[in-house]
Design brief:
Length: 253
């Protein structure tokens, strides 16, 4: 069925930094146009797993990665595929909003430029991306102001606009609300729910309420392994594994 079409997946993943193994024999699949939450205690490997999908460990000289990562039928670690190409298909939003020290406009324009989008097409794409990220009405009269003057929540929506401007197929989000107040958090959650119509979304979160509010699927990780994955309602209300139950009920973490 279309809803369960697997967009992104990994099989047999092992990841070590030096002698420390942080991911162990991970098999995971993300359905298209759904939101999947990765949850688990600090240090269990959630961010490391997320980062593996857009080749962020390529930069760590001590990282050793094994396994098969696929975006549909594209092997993401294939010898000839460019990392820029992988990252234009799989965008990423980080924990702390990280706008460039440039204007609001330039923050989006920059990625378009380096991805070879013709100059005359960029203003339209920038406006569309800001609208899609629910930021346009707040910034349309001050596009040339430094991005750093925006509030934390606005900066995070700008980072989302920067990502969607490149028309990715998947958006990876690493605790995108952890530095935000409750109202900005709800705005971003609302935005994420709308974005899933166009994109496949994977979000790392420590916020159990957030996972239950927005995620279709939830994956519980512990000490580098996947303990349980399934529909969010089942993982939270009817977990199969005792560890999952203890974690989602806040008994450790
Ligand atoms: N570049 C790196 N070099 C060495 N060790 C690393 C590196 N990146 C992550 N680690 C280690 O890998 C383990 C998993 O970290 P990771 O950030 O993936 O966990 P996490 O579940 O996302 O944690 P948190 O919820 O605290 O963000 C940790 O022990 C961390 O110290």
């Amino acid at each position: 069925m279309d809803q369960e079409h697997i967009k992104l997946s990994a099989e047999g993943v092992n990841l070590s930094f030096g002698s420390k193994q942080v991911l162990k024999n991970i098999d995971i699949a993300f359905p298209e146009h759904q939101i999947t939450a990765l949850i688990g205690p600090s240090g269990c490997g959630k961010s490391s797993l997320l980062r593996a999908f857009n080749r962020m460990h390529d930069l760590s000289s001590n990282a050793r990665i094994e396994g098969k990562f696929n975006l549909e039928d594209q092997d993401l670690y294939e010898k000839n595929i460019s990392v820029t190409r992988v990252r234009s298909r799989i965008g990423m939003v980080f924990q702390k909003a990280n706008p460039f020290p440039k204007s609001i406009y330039e923050n989006i324009n920059y990625g378009l430029k380096i991805n070879g989008i013709p100059k005359d097409q960029r203003p339209g794409i920038i406006e569309k991306a800001l609208k899609e990220s629910y930021l346009w009405d707040e910034v349309k009269d001050e596009l040339h102001k430094p991005a750093i003057t925006l509030s934390g929540g606005q900066q995070q929506r700008l980072c989302i606009a920067r990502t969607v401007a490149l028309r990715p197929e998947v958006i990876l989000m690493d605790e995108p609300c952890s530095a935000l107040d409750p109202l900005s958090t709800l705005k971003i959650e609302d935005l994420i729910l709308k974005l899933k119509k166009k994109y496949t979304i994977v979000i790392v979160t420590h916020n159990m309420q957030q996972a239950q509010r927005i995620a279709d699927k939830t994956v519980f990780m512990y000490l580098g392994e996947i303990i349980e994955q399934g529909d969010t309602g089942d993982v939270f209300n009817n977990p199969k594994n005792e560890l999952t139950g203890n974690y989602v009920r806040g008994r450790f973490g």
